[in-house]
Specification:
41% helix; flat; PH-domain like; 4-stranded mixed beta sheet; 12 strands; 232 residues
Length: 232
Amino acid sequence: MRKSPRPQAGGVTELAESARAMVLFCVACGAVAGALLPLLARLLLSLPWAPFEGPAELLTSVPEPALTLGTIAVGVLGGLLLGFTAVHESLSVRVTDTHVTLTIRDSAREFTREEISVFFRDGKQLVLLGPDGLEQAREHCGLNWQRLADALTARGHTWASEDPHRAEFRRWVPSTPGLPPGVNALLRARAQARKNEDHAEEARELRGELLRLGVVVRDEDGRQYVRVATAQ
């Protein structure tokens, strides 16, 4: 599902996930799910009690092969929608000797070599740290990590196997002492937002507010860990 780094004229390397592979994978999953749906409905109806009994009866009232063909078609359409969404949300990286550009959701952010001191992986996310220790970017990344690291280092950028400030993080609990004013309130709001997947964008915005106050937050096992950045 991933392309190799693609050297181009002018000292440029571009990395991006294969849109065709992502869409085909989602379509295949949707088709399989659609084919299994009638079987699942019949299984539910064979049980003494089952949830969604009414919809299952309605579904199985459609004669074959129209039922299976119809659910497969719906699954394929759902897979197409999911695939196009995945392509839209996927990250691509453009690397030159002087700049790195991240493109996601039709939005591009360009960083100069001077703005970024180190790139590293945090779980499934690509993180860019500035010279002051603050995060300049944090994005979900589906690229091959080794190829990404090789592309960056080949152009003279610094790649680390993990966060160089990892030992400075401490677990946040309500009213953690030693944090700048207003940070605990923002962390409480972010903890609440993270409990609801519908508020993922709100949690992202609150991360940005914390960075403006000089605080970096890292998520691990449902908990928030924080450090106060200090200029290097």
